[in-house]
Predict the 3D structure of the following.
Amino acid sequence: MSDFFLFFGSNHQSFVPKISSFLKFFDDTKVFVFKNSAFSMVLTRVDNTDLWGPFESVDDGILISLVGRIALSEERVDWHVKQSFYDIKDTA
């Protein structure tokens, strides 16, 4: 399961290491720490971080992170789009 701690305000960087250890419930939990002058965030994930892990742009510093899991139902999948993807992939 993923979890996060987000803190805005001053003097927030001193306790981030302790929060990081509190959010690591199992050995396979991956911990990500983000600190800047405006906020600190600790994010934990237990799934594939290549797909679901956080992303921070080196160009403009935009941070994108997902906590929890998304739910997809098969009825909502656009099969035409999915088939087009496989057609393009097979021709490459």
